[in-house]
């Protein structure tokens, strides 16, 4: 078992002096291989800040973050971009597919960024799209897809470059209950079958059935849920 | 270009509209440039087509041919340097003529040239004239359109002298008036008044206006240095000193410059607005690990593609338009001017796209997280 994500004493403070607001306060977290972690919290609890810091989008004020064993400290903007490309798969709220790319191209694009050969990329894209049961829709534009289908494409896109860890930002926000559960189940399936890790940020407590661990973000730290 | 091309494929209507606007702007730029060039050529084609690269003018004549007066002494001195064949005198006289047998009254410019020298007109219709026979002239073909034909007699209103038109030349205008070529004998006759008025040169003949030269730059310098009262100017300087030429061209140049500025601003604003609309997309792309350089090339590549395609269509449209233009509307667009204009147009588009690139650079990948928008 190797740790895919380690956050050590991570603190993020906005502003300074008396007006300073501490969003993350000496937060610790370890996510291991094959683990699917859910982070719950009401809006304004710092979920976005937590996800941005873990996803190498935001540099914390203090503390250290390791992604797949690699420290994020002292990395330049370009290196972080490269690291996000190689090590992290992102799922955004409302899928956030590129409106002008067909389903298959959404996947081919990230593969192209990672300099994967077109042939390999097509094989990988076909594999993922078939697994997520969206293969028939590969030549459709996002506007022609339902919300659930869009999120399935987003899952496929996130796993395309075989990242070490997947970060999902409210993946079920724009979906109804049953479709939301379906999407979360699929993320969990992928985590297990690919031997990777995933962190999902959500405020919806009904979506936790498939998660290995559920944490609450309270006062800038993560607390194990007692259910 | 992966993104740029697919984006255009997806939003065909939007990018077609941009292309139409770019096409119209590029067409306007090329067309006005062509008209300006045409007008310039129609103005001074007689000078432009002369096989002379330098002109000797009197130093107090402000480069203007008609103000300059040179006599045999200067000619002899210049010929000592340049050689007889490479330096030939030119008399210029603006006047008004009437033609027999036709209801014509036209402003023309007389060019008195040595009919065996390098300035001798190249007759395209009819026959030329010689230095020996008086009373014959060769006229610009524009006079033919006014009703003058070969064999017509034209009469100079100022001097009362008459010539029989024996032939026509093409593209020979000076200050927008057709040029009538006469030989030195007729020039002397025309200028009898000047001779009697006491401004004849040492040999007793009437003065010429300028001396046309076909010499090297070093020779031109030598001629300029050797005489106090004369100045050697290039053909370009001579052209821009033709009365009205500079004013006309400056107005047109101003229009073209403004067209370029407007084109650049319109394109820049268009792409900027589109870029702002796509801000969230750029955030997502950056979060997923797209390098800024990739996005910059995507934006610039798109602008390049659109401007080159529009420009190509604009050139076709301009050439097509040129074919449909009536002869009285002068239009001149040589390859070099077209290439320069095209390069400038593409350069301006690229410059405009850089504003969008700067906007993209400011987009933070963080914007991707916690967004609810589609």
UniProtKB/TrEMBL annotation, chain A:
InterPro entries for this protein: AAA+_ATPase, ABC_transporter-like_ATP-bd, ABC_transporter-like_CS, ABC_transpr_LolD-like, MacB-like_ATP-bd, P-loop_NTPase
Membrane topology of this protein: Peripheral membrane protein
Protein's cellular compartments: Cell membrane
Gene Ontology terms for molecular function: ATP binding
Main location: membrane
ABC transporter domain mapped to chain residues: 5-225
UniProt KW Cell division keyword: no
One Pfam family of this chain: ABC_tran
Keywords for this protein: ATP-binding, Cell membrane, Membrane, Nucleotide-binding, Transport
Keyword field contains Electron transport: no
Family: Belongs to the ABC transporter superfamily. HrtA family.
Described function: Part of the ABC transporter complex hrt involved in hemin import. Responsible for energy coupling to the transport system.
Protein name: Putative hemin import ATP-binding protein HrtA
Lineage: Bacteria, Bacillati, Bacillota, Bacilli, Bacillales
TrEMBL record, chain B:
Function: Part of the ABC transporter complex hrt involved in hemin import. Responsible for the translocation of the substrate across the membrane.
Transmembrane segments: 252-274, 294-319, 339-361
Organism of this sequence: Paenibacillus tritici
Subunit structure: The complex is composed of two ATP-binding proteins (HrtA), two transmembrane proteins (HrtB) and a solute-binding protein.
One Pfam family hit: FtsX
Cell compartments where the protein resides: Cell membrane
Keyword Transcription regulation: no
UniProt feature coiled coil, ranges: none
Keyword Transport: yes
InterPro entries: ABC-4/HrtB_transporter, ABC3_permease_C
Residues covered by the ABC3 transporter permease C-terminal domain: 254-363
Primary localisation category: membrane
Protein's recorded name: Putative hemin transport system permease protein HrtB
Family as reported in the entry's similarity comment: Belongs to the ABC-4 integral membrane protein family. HrtB subfamily.
PANTHER family: ABC TRANSPORTER, MEMBRANE PROTEIN (PTHR43738), HEMIN TRANSPORT SYSTEM PERMEASE PROTEIN HRTB-RELATED (PTHR43738:SF1)
């Amino acid at each position: 078992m190797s740790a895919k994500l380690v956050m050590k004493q991570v603190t993020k403070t906005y502003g300074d002096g008396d007006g300073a607001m501490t969003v993350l306060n000496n937060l610790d977290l370890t996510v291991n291989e094959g683990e699917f972690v859910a982070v719950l919290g009401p809006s304004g609890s710092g979920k976005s800040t937590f996800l941005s810091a873990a996803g190498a989008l935001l540099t914390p004020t203090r503390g250290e973050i390791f992604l797949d064993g690699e420290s994020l400290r002292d990395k330049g903007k370009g290196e972080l971009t490269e690291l996000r490309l190689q090590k992290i798969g992102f799922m955004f709220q409302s899928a956030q597919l590129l409106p002008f790319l067909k389903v298959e191209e959404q996947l081919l694009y990230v593969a192209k960024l990672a300099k994967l050969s077109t042939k390999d990329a097509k094989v990988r894209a076909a594999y993922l799209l078939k697994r997520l049961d969206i293969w028939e829709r590969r030549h459709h534009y996002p506007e022609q897809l339902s919300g659930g289908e869009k999120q399935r494409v987003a899952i496929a896109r996130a796993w395309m470059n075989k990242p070490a860890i997947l970060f999902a930002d409210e993946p079920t926000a724009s979906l109804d209950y049953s479709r939301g559960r379906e999407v979360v189940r699929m993320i969990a399936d992928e985590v297990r079958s690919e031997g990777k890790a995933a962190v999902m940020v959500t405020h919806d407590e009904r979506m936790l059935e498939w998660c290995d661990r559920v944490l609450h973000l309270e006062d800038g730290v993560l607390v194990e849920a007692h259910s | 270009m992966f993104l740029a091309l697919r984006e255009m494929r997806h939003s065909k209507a939007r990018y077609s509209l941009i292309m139409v606007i770019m096409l119209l702007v590029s067409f306007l730029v090329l067309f006005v440039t062509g008209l300006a060039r045409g007008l310039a050529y129609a103005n001074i084609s007689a000078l432009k087509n002369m096989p002379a690269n330098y002109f000797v003018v009197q130093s107090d004549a402000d480069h203007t041919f008609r103000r300059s007066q040179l006599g045999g002494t200067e000619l002899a001195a210049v010929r000592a340097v340049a050689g007889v064949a490479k330096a030939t005198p030119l008399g210029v006289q603006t006047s008004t003529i009437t033609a027999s047998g036709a209801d014509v009254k036209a402003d023309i410019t007389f060019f008195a040239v040595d009919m065996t020298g390098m300035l001798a007109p190249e007759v395209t219709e009819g026959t030329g004239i010689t230095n020996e026979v008086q009373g014959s002239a060769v006229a610009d073909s524009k006079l033919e359109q006014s009703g003058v034909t070969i064999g017509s007699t034209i009469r100079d209103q100022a001097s009362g002298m008459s010539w029989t038109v024996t032939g026509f030349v093409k593209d020979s205008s000076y200050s927008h008036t057709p040029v009538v070529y006469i030989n030195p004998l007729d020039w002397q006759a025309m200028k009898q008044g000047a001779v009697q008025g006491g401004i004849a040169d040492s040999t007793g003949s009437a003065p010429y206006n300028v001396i046309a030269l076909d010499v090297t730059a070093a020779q031109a310098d030598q001629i300029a240095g050797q005489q106090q009262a004369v100045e050697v100017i290039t053909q370009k300087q001579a052209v821009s000193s033709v009365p009205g030429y500079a004013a006309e061209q400056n107005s047109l140049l101003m229009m073209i410059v403004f067209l370029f500025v407007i084109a650049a601003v319109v394109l820049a604003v268009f792409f900027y607005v589109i870029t702002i609309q796509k801000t969230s997309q750029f955030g997502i792309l950056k979060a997923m690990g797209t390098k800024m350089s990739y996005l910059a090339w995507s934006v610039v590549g798109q602008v390049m593609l659109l401007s080159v395609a529009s420009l190509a269509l604009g050139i076709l449209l301009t050439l097509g338009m040129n074919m449909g233009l009536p002869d009285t509307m002068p239009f001149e667009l040589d390859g070099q001017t077209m290439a320069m204009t095209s390069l400038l147009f593409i350069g301006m588009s690229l410059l405009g796209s850089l504003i969008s690139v700067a906007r993209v650079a400011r987009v933070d990948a963080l914007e991707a997280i916690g967004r609810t928008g589609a």
